[in-house]
Design brief:
12% strand, Rossmann fold, 5-stranded parallel β-sheet, alpha/beta
Amino acid sequence: MDNKSGQRLKLGVTGGIGSGKTTICRVFTVIGIPVFSADDEARLIQDIDIEVIQKINEVAGRDLYTSGKLDRPGLARIIFNNRDLLEKVNSLIHPKVFENYRKWESEQDAPYTVMEAAILFESGAYRLVDKILTVVTPMEERIERLIKGNKLTREQVLERVNNQIDDESRIRQSDYLVFNSENDMIIPAILGVHKEMLNLYKKAI
C-alpha cells in the first residue's frame, strides 16, 4: 500500500499486549518521528467525552465513573469475558480515535508518522496507514512483563490476549517485524525500518 500522492507516509505499529510497542515507539520519537498513541487517545476519550461516558455506563449497567474517571478494572471485568459488550464499547471509541488521529496527522511535518495501536487490525485502523510494523515477543515474556509491570494475574493477562488476534495473523499482514525479546537488538531493526520509510517517502514525492 505505497503512497503515490507525495504526502507523508503513515506507519502503523502494533503487537500483542506486553510485546513492548511503547518502547519501540519511544525510539521513533527520539529519532524525530511523531507518534500518535491510539491507546492513550482511547483512554482520554473514555475519561472526558460525555457521550462516551454515558454510553459506557449504559453498556455496563452501572456507574463506572464514581471517582470522576473510568473504573478501568471494573470495565475490564465486565467486557473481557463478553465479546458483544467488548465490541459495543469499541464501537463507541474507535471512530472518535480515528477522527482525532486524522486531525493530528494532518498537522505533522515529517516524512512519515507513526500510529501505535494494540488492536490495529481488529479496530480497522490498519486501513488508515501505508505500512505496518508488528512487534513480536514470546508469549511467556509478555505474560511475565504484564504480571510484573501491570500487577495483573496470569488469568487476567490471558483474557486480554484472547481478545486480540494472534501473532501469526499479525505477521502475515505486516510489512516489517521487530523482535523484542531480551536478547534482540531493537535499535538496528528500528533504524532499518526508518531508513526504508524515508526511501519510500523520497520515491513518492
